[in-house]
Specification:
This protein is an alpha+beta fold and 142 residues long. It is built from three helices and five strands; from the N terminus they run βααββαββ. A five-stranded antiparallel sheet has the order 1-2-3-5-4, covered by helices on one side.
Length: 142
């Protein structure tokens, strides 16, 4: 799988990870490495970790169904005080407009459905491509 050229002009790296909860630890380690390597303020760490963990969780839980490779891809780059991530899976995709709004009263007590809401609030930019099989997250960390 390739990420679209408009997401990263020159990707810093790419990982193919198993669609298992253990991959969350690898993602956390990658984020910590990027923060350390580029001397990024820890003020941004929580937002990046939570949003990227949500994207990873969505790929694991929804993006790798039976008949699909049990793995997903993570692309990452850092330049000009900006962290960019793309999480891509081979699942059926989805339409964001069809996801219930977790802030509506009838959805407040649901145990799931807040991931997109969190990613949107914690990142500076969030977009989907490839019919919802790829989520792109951008964080300005200046």
């Amino acid at each position: 799988m390739n990420t679209s050229p408009n997401v990263f002009s020159a990707p810093s790296g790419h990982l193919t990870l198993p669609a298992q909860s253990e991959s969350l630890r690898t993602v956390e380690q990658l984020v910590q490495h990027l923060f350390d390597a580029h001397a990024i303020s820890l003020d941004y760490l929580g937002n990046v970790l939570i949003a990227l963990s949500e994207a990873t969780n969505n790929a694991i839980q929804h993006g790798c169904p039976g008949g699909c490779l049990p793995e997903f891809e993570l692309f990452y780059a850092y330049s000009d005080h900006t962290l960019r991530f793309a999480v891509k899976d081979c699942g059926p995709g989805f339409c964001e407009e069809n996801v219930p709004d977790p802030t509506l009263p009838e959805n407040l007590e649901r145990e799931c459905g807040r991931g997109i809401f969190l990613m949107r609030r914690l990142s500076d930019e969030l977009s989907y491509s490839d019919e919802g099989r790829q989520v792109d997250l951008i964080f300005r960390v200046s």
